[in-house]
Amino acid sequence: MSVFTTVTADELRRWLQDYDVGELLDLQGISAGIENTNYFVTTSAGRYVLTLFEKLSAQELPFYLNLMAHLAEHGLPSAHPVANRGGSYLGALKGKPAALVARLEGTDVAAPAVRHCTAIGAVLARLHLAGQSYPAKMDNPRGPKWWKSVLPEILPFLPDSEAALLQEEVRFQSLYRFSDLPRGAIHADLFRDNVLFAGERVAGVIDFYFACTDALLYDVAIAVNDWCIDGTGALDSARTRAFLDAYAAVRPWTPIERGAWPVMLRAGALRFWVSRLYDFHLPRPGELTHAKDPGHFRRILELRIRDEHGLPGLVA
User: Fold this and answer.
1) 188-200 exposure pattern, b = at least 16 Cβ within 10 A, e = fewer
2) Which of 48, 118, 266, 281 lies at a 20 to 30 A Cα distance from 81?
3) Is residue 98 within 8 Å of residue 91, measured between CB atoms?
4) For the chain, how are helix, strand and coil distributed in percent, rounded to 5?
5) In angstroms, rounded to a whole number, what is the distance separating the alpha carbons of residues 102 and 82?
6) CA distance 77 to 58
7) Can you tell me whether residue 269 is helix, strand or coil?
């Protein structure tokens, strides 16, 4: 379980006195995630998720919390943060920045079908359009600058072949800036476990704590690299086509996006290979924490490089 900071029921009861959410009934740690401490909270007024932020500072967090509220208020299925009695979405608990957000209905989908990819492709496009009116900006905290900065820490753990692949891909990505790609607020972590379905409907998009201002196509690549793969990590053509066509029906592709697509797929794979390597080899102490397999995204990157000329493209 990824619980870095333990919160007792009595501690939470005292903290909740600053919120109009009724009496605490139940508190359960959440096993998913590797960045923050998360609990399911049930009160007499409803169900919530409590997050204690282990890395993000109180100065950074308003970008994420206000984005979640902005999207929810524009009709997206984003969890709306709960304001305390002072009107702030952000509090402090156990010496950590903390937030309470509404718990959304639905469950994640471990094995997405074409219909799921169609649904989430359309929702991601709607999210990007709604994000265009979000005024705040945030540089990508896990972008190319970060990849380069952590290389010296990661490389000593890798065999020569993997170290060479990692260094070459970071070099390759540095050649492509794509400054003309449409940009705006992106989720940047839209994996299957961050989307909740109620039947055929997307009922929730959660965990916005890697959101940032970046190329919209990069967000699409990250999602496709998780939602549309087979057991080997190769793209499944039917699911990929469904995702991309549903997205384009809401927000059509630009010509430069169509040209940048293969490079963005590689960038999305690289980002999560690097972060998983970092979390695996340089973990933080925590209570029952777990890190995800870095090799999964190394294999995806190798496949995107191999299949560059045979990838499902963006159709005008």
Assistant:
1) bbbebebbbbeee
2) 118
3) yes
4) 45, 15, 40
5) 7
6) 25
7) helix
Backbone angles phi, psi at 168, to 5 degrees: -70, -40
What percentage of the chain carries pLDDT values higher than 90?
91
28 secondary structure, DSSP code: E
Q: Which residue spans of the chain are classified as CATH 3.30.200.20? A: 9-102
**pLDDT per position as a tens digit, 92-150:** 999 999 999 999 999 999 999 999 999 999 999 999 999 999 999 999 999 999 999 99
C-alpha span between 119 and 108 (Å, rounded): 13
Residue 123 in contact with residue 248, Cβ under 8 Å? Answer: no
> Can you give the pTM of this predicted structure?
0.93
Cβ-proximal residues to 145 (8 Å cutoff; 6+ apart), any chain: none
The amino acid occupying position 70 is H
Domain 114-310 architecture: Alpha-Beta Complex (3.90)
C-alpha 120/C-alpha 227 separation (Å) is 9
Query: CATH 3.90.1200.10 in the chain, residues?
Result: 114-310
H/E stretch holding 123: helix 114-131
What does CATH list as the number for 9-102?
Answer: 3.30.200.20
Cβ contact 120:243 at 8 Å? yes
